[in-house]
Amino acid sequence: MNFKNITIEYHYLDVPAPFCYTKTLKISTTETTLHVDYLLEYTDRENFSQDELEDEGFTGEDNESWKGDINIGWLETLTTLTDYNKGDKATSANESVVHVDGELLDTYGNESRWDYFIQEITQAIYETATWEQPLTIRFCKKDTDKAPIQKLQVSFATRTASLTAGDKSKTVEWNNIQQLLKLYYLQEFKEGEHSNKVPNLAGIYSDPSDGLWYDIKNSSAVLNKIQKEKLLSILEEIFE
Hints:
It is built from five helices and 13 strands. By secondary structure, it is of the alpha+beta class.
């Protein structure tokens, strides 16, 4: 679907107050970029005191806003999303109210697709606004004493990823990155299950960007057996 302007009002309802929020993105197209007006507002906090908010790790001034341009590469993804037909049943508790050039788009049955899109484009905004750095994941398959440490750098702002091992570097397809991240951060990277450096024992180790190393194969996870096997397969595919 071709469009000039799109407004997305995304209601994150999976958690109760004071964690739930609404994100509003007003996006307009130009020949070279997408212009974005981004706003995050926490909702339903009327019954929470300042002390209660602080106990939950908030300040009371937690809303976010940003205006600027993001990479035109995001247009293809957004266009694909607007082309999906209505589904048979809801796929997420969250809600996206989308207007394309002023017309309401029916997103029923595609909620999970919009969920993931909002996650990705929010990261792109954070990078473009320099609120966060691009994601870096390190990986080491320890089966010899000289097992190399490989580094995967992921930029949501440009929808690109590169893998570096020693003096070698290669590009990783964005589709592979999406498959990886959907499972990778379902892992429970628990304190006490980490090492400050790659252990000497044989294993598959990864640093999820916190500077610590976790045994992916044996760590705690909410992944079922099939998901764990798929994650390990994707890791093996991306990291040589």
